[in-house]
Amino acid sequence: MNYSYPLSPDWTTEEVTMVVHFFVSVEEAYEKGVKRQQLLADYKNFKEVVPSRSEEKRIFREFEKRSGYSAYHVVKKMLDEPETKIIRM
To answer: In which region does residue 86 sit, left (phi positive, over 0), alpha (psi from -120 to 50) or beta (all else)?
Structure first.
């Protein structure tokens, strides 16, 4: 991993941790698969930090630009396939 996560200097240490956990889950979905329940929990925590849809889109675009991983597609798959136990991209 040779990139940094899109983080805000206004976030607390706990908020940064929650956002980083979500992005790690997105990376795992691409690299080896992630349990849907874990991804869902991480996404809910992410939404506590970033409740705005427009801000979420901006952060997702920045993350994809830096990493090549689409958080949007991972979340979409998680929401569209509720019966799936493991999310793999």
So the answer is: beta
